[in-house]
Amino acid sequence: MSFVLETAANPENLRRVAIDPLSRVEGHGKVTILLDDQNKVHQVRLHIVEFRGFEKFIQGRPYWEVPVMVQRLCGICPVSHHLAASKALDEIVGAKQLTPTADKMRRLMHYGQILQSHALHFFHLSSPDLLFGFDSDIAKRNIVGIAEQHPEIARQGVLLRKFGQEVIRHTAGKRIHGTGAVPGGVNKSLSITERDELLKDIDDMMTWSLGAVHLVKLMHQQNPALYDHFGAFKANFMSMVGFDGGMDLYHGHLRARDGAGNILFDGVHYQNYSQIIEEEVKNWTYMKFPYLKSMGAEKGWYRVGPLSRMQNCDFISTPLAELERRDFIEYSGVMPMHAPLGYHWARMIEMLHAVEVIKNLLHDSDILGNDLIITGERGFEGVGVIEAPRGTLIHHYRVDENDLVTMCNLIVSTTHNNQAMNEAVRRVAQQYLHGHEITEGLLNHIEVAVRAFDPCLSCATHALGKMPLEIEVLNAASDQLSRLSRSSEGILSTPSSVV
Amino acid sequence: MFQNKDTYTFLLDGKTIPFTEEQTIIQAAMAAGEYIPHLCFNPEFKPHGSCKICTVSANGRQTASCTQQPQAGMVVESNTPQINGERLALLQMLFVEGNHFCPSCEKSGDCQLQATAYEMNMMSSHFDHFFPDRPVDASHPEYLLDFNRCILCSLCVRASSDVDGKDVFSLAGRGIKTRLIVNAESGRLADTNFSGDDKAAHVCPVGVIIKKRVGFAVPIGQRSFDEHPISFTPHPALKDN
């Protein structure tokens, strides 16, 4: 099926504008826009142009290698993949309930990851747009420009991220691509020295995180016409919430709401994700399009990530973040907030929550314990789900009796947001580009919409052998000589030559 | 001739190294606390002389220090740019002949190949990778063989034969087609008399012979070569001595 502005009726006479590569996002992607002579927009697509293949080459490897291997999908949020895989493999080793030390060490690692990733995204990638303006001087629209014009904000951003990375280093052994979680638990706890080193700076992190929330809130309050409506579109929300309905980014069950905030489903055990989520492939991007099975591809697409989580949970367990969540909900009014820029506000509330959780965990003596790993009855299939910085992350594995992986399915946060991101760039193209002379500043509006989702494009392209492909042979005059197509079912065909 | 070991010495990179009649150059160097890069040599086993990483210049002639006995007054050069450059090339060839994916290898941090490559300042594989197709043998209930990482050092062959008296492992084929095999018609480890108690189960310097389900149990920071490079780390076989 095709959405409005996804495919132009007569593309041959249209002008093509490409934003390639998208800047200040993780991974490689591009946006293409087809315009007519009056600059009216006929087609907008967010393409993911890189390709990974982890689902395939993890097959045949021993299962205990998986959490370390799959985290190499990404250099920004490897902890998310590391932990989602570990949770899935807990099922394989029969670890139904981790030891308190293992559970809390993993949570500490995860919230460190949330903190560093959210800080990176807001301060390094997005704050130049928000503080300078979407069409401001491109030479200054970056973190260096922020450091010059707003040195204290830049400093706090750098140090917040650094603190999150230090939490990861103390829990996983390295800031990037560590080994802390193993099937059934963790391989280390914190030493008193490590704990005290982190506690030393925690209050500064709290103050600065709260300041970041207030900064974004002020942006909405001062310019609601922009922040509440830029690229806005109505969509479903999905996330994992804690078993008590509160925000829990490490463990819980799945919940979804429709665009009006009504519950679509709740309490779904994530082991059953395949009963509620289907994926569609399209021939113009390497990224798949997930949707809720019960609603179909046209109505069932949804949003994940901070904006969903903030409006999907019933409460946040830590006091400062809960106060901010209530402000957010109250500001949104009767209807949920659908504006992509609302992601930034929700993201900063989550960063504050992460700091609060980290502080609580550092004061919990269980993180100093020695009971690290537990095993039980051997299983052969496991699903692990975690709320990664960018949204719901699903890892699913089957393992044979010789301990080798036979099947892997990864549904990555950015993949869930695929249709939503496409929708956002189409809305922005309609709002700002339609009928106007295209300028760099206008094109940056498209990128601002994509950036709001904090997409990790490299993580999201891992399938192998399922992608519909077309190969065209052109002559020097760009006339098509021949064409070979492969459908999503893997069927090859050679449509008749155009020339 | 060798009545007093202090009487007989040779020079290793300018340092005086005492030796006895039974020792080779690398054995004498190791006893004196000096490091000569090596892979197929293990002080618990008879020298094999196959990997050539331990090549030194002895009185101007290149030789494998694990098999060459020193002579009194011999001038041995090991840590020179030329010899280290040749070692680096050998290491790079080992890396491209197999599939050495250190980022997800559970032996990372404990692997002598990786540690030696770090020691030789290896920054890239340099040569084109072969990408051989080598499925793992996971048939044994407790141990796994990942042939992707084999460097043909034959330590498992020697351990199984000389210590365990079993001949579970052997090198088959010739030249570039040489490969590690196990002594079973099926070719599966599960169909041999291999045991986790065998010496052969514990001598692999890389990540071929792997005990199942314990990977990554040792955290980063506590692995063999995390704190010090291999040149400052006693050989695993000598740690308890």
Topology:
The complex is a heterodimer of chains A (about 500) and B (about 240).
Chain A (H helix, E strand, L loop, with lengths): L14 E5 L9 E7 L5 E8 L5 H4 L8 H5 L7 H15 L7 H33 L10 H7 L1 H22 L8 E2 L2 E2 L5 H31 L1 H4 L8 E6 L11 E5 L5 E6 L8 E4 L8 E4 L3 H4 L2 E2 L2 H7 L6 H14 L9 H21 L18 E8 L2 E9 L5 E7 L1 H4 L1 H16 L6 H13 L16 E6 L5 E7 L5 E2 L6
Parallel strand pairs in A: 6-11
Antiparallel strand pairs in A: 1-2, 2-3, 4-5, 6-7, 7-8, 9-10, 12-13, 13-14, 15-16, 16-17
Chain B lengths: L8 E4 L2 E4 L6 H7 L23 E4 L2 E4 L10 E3 L3 H17 L14 H8 L23 E3 L9 H10 L4 E4 L6 E4 L26 E3 L30
Q: Give the quaternary arrangement of the chains.
A: heterodimer
Largest sheet of chain A: 4 strands, mixed
Number of strands of chain A: 17
Computed Rg of chain B: 18 Å
Largest interface: A-B, 25 and 21 residues
Fill in the keyword field for this structure.
heterodimer, A: alpha+beta, Cytochrome-c3 Hydrogenase, chain B, 3 domains, 4-stranded mixed beta sheet, 17 strands, 40% helix, B: 241 residues, alpha+beta, Ubiquitin-like (UB roll), 5-stranded mixed beta sheet, two-stranded antiparallel sheet, 4 helices, 17% helix
